[in-house]
């Protein structure tokens, strides 16, 4: 699929996709005889994972580190696992903090509903 269709499918701009390719986050994108990018199902699965990491606030440097390890193949599986486990810990802490904020907000809203705040 071409960059326009792929861009629409994954929800990233063509500029972002080209940037990801430039920095090495998206590698080995095939080209057709005209030199235009042709994305595969493999590219789609990878970008979906990259987006998930970004949406969970993994820094781009961390995603790039994961991508470099992924390129190394099977010998880097344990290192990738450690990297994802570290991110999981950060994500759990962030979720806990957000839950605390939500509880405080709900408490304040309940005070307003009871007429206890003026």
User: Helicity level, as a percent range?
Assistant: 55-70%
Strand content range: under 5%
Biggest sheet, spatial arrangement of strands: 1-2
**Corresponding CATH architecture of the largest domain:** Orthogonal Bundle
Blueprint of the fold:
Elements: H1 3-10, H2 14-22, E1 30-31, E2 37-38, H3 41-55, H4 60-72, H5 77-113
Antiparallel strand pairs: 1-2
Helix pairs in contact: 4-5
Protein name: MerR family transcriptional regulator
Keywords: DNA-binding
Pfam families: MerR_1 (PF13411)
Please explain how this structure is put together:
The structure is a single chain. With 118 residues, the chain is mainly α. It has two domains: 55 residues, Multidrug-efflux Transporter Regulator, Chain: A, Domain 2 (Orthogonal Bundle), CATH 1.10.1660; 45 residues. Helices cover 69% and strands 3% of the residues. It has five helices and two strands. It has a two-stranded antiparallel sheet. β1 and β2 form a beta hairpin. α4 runs antiparallel to α5. The longest helix is centred in the last third of the chain and has 37 residues. The protein is elongated and about 70 Å long. The mean pLDDT is 96.
């Amino acid at each position: 699929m071409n960059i326009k269709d792929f861009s629409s499918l994954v929800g990233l701009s063509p500029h972002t996709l080209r940037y990801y390719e430039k920095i090495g986050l998206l590698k080995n994108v095939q080209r057709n005889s005209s030199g235009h990018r042709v994305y595969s199902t493999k590219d789609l699965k990878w970008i979906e994972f990259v987006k998930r990491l970004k949406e969970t606030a993994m820094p781009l440097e961390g995603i790039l580190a994961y991508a470099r390890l992924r390129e190394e193949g099977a010998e880097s599986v344990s290192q990738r696992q450690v990297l994802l486990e570290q991110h999981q810990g950060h994500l759990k802490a962030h979720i806990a903090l957000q839950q605390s904020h939500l509880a405080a907000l709900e408490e304040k809203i309940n005070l307003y509903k009871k007429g206890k705040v003026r």
